[in-house]
Amino acid sequence: MADHINRYFKPHTPVLAEQVMFSAGVTAINDIVAWNLTDPGDGILLGMPIYGDFQGDLTARAGAEILYVPMQGVDPFSPVAIEKYEASLQKAESRGIKVRALWLCNPHNPLGEFALSGLASVRR
Hints:
This protein has 5 helices and 3 strands. By secondary structure, it is an alpha/beta fold.
């Protein structure tokens, strides 16, 4: 699978076989990633609108806090969205919440938007 990812997506840093994981579904992967990235009370930034079950997927076991970022019509993968993520990050930090992740769903659920080039802007 790592070979396929490297050939098809051409990542900046090659993916190693030991970095690839399989699961019975995305709900389990969401849970596993949140549980490994966060401690109870840590924040996860999540642009709205969202797939409703992210709340349970990311908080049930991990105990993380979802910090919703209203996009108000802005493409969540666009450079303009960065300002919204940054404002929510600063607001969380002012409340004493340690933000551990920015959760991006690609393709976006429920909007169905797909972005690879826009993700590069968010990553910077």
